[in-house]
Amino acid sequence: MRRVLLALFCVLFLVQSACAQSEDLRRTPVVRAVQAVGPAVVNITSSRLVQSVPTPFGGQFSGPLFERFLRDFGLEVPAQKAQSLGSGVLIDGRRGFVLTNAHVIEGASEIAVRLQDGRELAAKVRGADPDLDLAVLQVDPAGGLPQAEMGDSSTLFIGETVIAIGNPYGYTNTVTTGVVSAVGRSVGTDEEILTDLIQTDAAINPGNSGGPLLNLLGQVIGINTAIQADAQGIGFAIPVNKAKRVLDELINVGHVTPVWLGLFGQDLDQPTAGYLGLKSPRGVLVTELSRNGPADRAGVRPGDAVLALGGKPVEDRQHLISLVRDLGRSETRLTVARSGRELTLAVTPQALDQATLDGLLLTHWGLALDPRPRRAGLAVSKVQGPAQRLGLKPGDLLMQIGGQDIGSTDDLARAFARYHLHNALVLTIQRGQNIYRARMPI
Questions:
Q1: 282 with 231, same domain?
Q2: Is residue 422 included in any domain, yes or no?
Q3: Which residue range is the domain that position 286 belongs to?
Q4: Phi, psi of 417 (to 5 degrees)
Q5: Bridge partners for 175 per DSSP
Q6: CA 341 – CA 364 distance, rounded (Å)
Q7: Other C-beta atoms within 10 Å of 220: how many?
Q8: With CB atoms counted within 10 Å of each terminal CB, which end of the chain scores lower, N or C?
Q9: Which residue among 117, 139, 161 closes a domain?
Q10: Active site residues
Q11: What is the pLDDT of residue 52?
């Protein structure tokens, strides 16, 4: 009998060992990464009130300008609640900080965060920057929260396995895998260019935005942000190092202070590129420098052609603005062409403080604005140069510059950083009860 029991015990031990070994074989690096980070990935539901009225053509009138127009005439339209879904990742469980995309929570009046364990928490925006498409939310950390480890996106290998976790189409904690297809990619929109993105073939669908892109160590190396709508297997993520550079500012200030190089210029054309001895018309021709600005201190001269910033080739003015925005206030290398040779200069972008901004707005755009926010924008207090030639007058309300709403001096700084290299601005102005859109050459 003792021998029988001993034999049964041995059989059970062998079966248990075989099962354990089989389970270990199935627990691949992908599985371990998902198990480690999955609890820190959240589903974000943002709600906003939308005022709209149907048109006889089957569409609707809506948006901030329409709402302001209605209020000016004393009209009210019933507000409807619109919801959007996105993803995020807890990066600090002790303080309850969630990293996501700015577009996920844009215009939201209410934000709810749902964890993998079923808890649903109200969230508030701690800071957001639409140009970088990054935002930090905060939830109540009571009860303990998980958090993900942030990695180093500068060490990525082309072809290494990556994992995307998010909530596409509301399917919570969906996991997809792929590889790093490329780094340093740029994606253009109507208003701007997003630069230095990670490209991956891991499936990223609507609702994945704001969720983490992981390496096999279970570290966050990117924040999923965009998909190529007409392509298969092409998705993009913001490198986590870019997010780490601005986290403190988002959390403590609420936004990222815009920076600039202190130069004005124009796109290179073929004749100018040929005159400068360049093979292609890529880059920006410097036409003017801000006295004692970053470029001036670095040794840049009018007539130089900016060819690269931070080791990345500059395509045109818009691309240069995007590269400067991504670098922040870090010292970097600026490559210029001068008299048939290339020079590499050290330059540190400068924050657009209020005094600097006021001087630049008046000198280059011909505008001085009352910093006190009004219901519809900021009031024009003085005009000269381009603004005067356009016909603007003190008392006009500046509502938009390009695609940027103007409700504060922070909005003004962001607009100047985005459009200061443009040859013309599209302004939205309110005068009395009328709203105008006008193109202002500068």
A1: no
A2: yes
A3: 259-351
A4: -60, -35
A5: 165
A6: 31
A7: 27
A8: N
A9: 139
A10: 103, 133, 209
A11: 55
